[in-house]
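[scheduler] slot 2 assigned
[scheduler] job type: sequence-to-structure, two independent chains
[scheduler] chain ordering preserved from manifest
[runner] begin chain α
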Amino acid sequence: MPECIVCKIEYKAESLKSDITQHRKVCRSCRTEQRQTTLQQRANSAVYNEVMALEARINRVEETTQYIDTIVEATIATKLETMVESFVEKLVNEKATKLTEQIATLNSRVLALTNKLQKLEE
C-alpha cells in the first residue's frame, strides 16, 4: 500500500492505474483538503480583486465629487450677486423716481411762489 507524502499514513489506492498515471502519492483526505485549500485561495483572490475594484471606484467617485462643493458655492455666489444687483438697481430706480417727482413738485412750488412774488412787487 502506498504512503501519503503529506500525512505519512498508508492508504488504499482508488485505482492503481490512475494513481500511477497522475503521479498521486496523496491520500483521499489530504487531496480533498488540498482541493478545498485551492478553492479557498481562489475565492479569497476573487474577493480581494472585488475589494480592490470597489476601492478604485470609490477613489474615482471621490475625485469626481471633490470639487462639487466649490462649484455649488460659486454657482450660488453668482446667482446671489445677480439677485442683489437686480434688487439694488430696482431700489435705486424707485428712489430716483421719487426724488424726480419731489424735485418736480418743489420746482412747481418755487415757480408758483416766484410768480406770486413778482405779482406782489408789481
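[runner] end chain α
[runner] begin chain β
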Amino acid sequence: MAFATAVDVVAALGRSLTSAESAAVGNQLDQATDLVVGYLGATPNPVPGAVTRVVATMVAAVFDKPATNNSDYGANGYNVVREAMTVKVGVESATTSGPWLTNALKMRLSPYRVGAVTVFTVSSEFGS
C-alpha cells in the first residue's frame, strides 16, 4: 500500500492533477513507496506524516519535471552546455521516468531509517 494518496500529491503540487497524471498517480505512488521502503530498510507502521509528504513530493516532482530528450544530454549523462562551463549537474531526475530520492528528501527520511547497530562483545578469554 502506498504511503501517500493522490490528495497528498495535489497538496504537494499546489494544483489539480491532469487526466494523464490522474491515470498514472497510483503507479507512481507505488514506485515512490518502494524506493522509500528500500531506503528506510523497513516499512513504518503507522506511516509518519513526514514520510507521506516525501512520497507525495517525489511523485509531484515526476509530474512537474520538464520534458527532455536525448539531444539535451551528452553520452556521460551531463548537460553538454553546463559541462562546458565546468558546472556538472547530475541528471538522474531527467533520465528516469519514475520517482527518485534527492539528498534533501533522504535527509527528511533519516529519522525513520533503520540502521545497523554495533554491539561490542568481550570474550571470557579476553585478557587471560
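[runner] end chain β
[qc] chain β: Residues 6-66+98-112 form one domain.
[scheduler] slot 2 released
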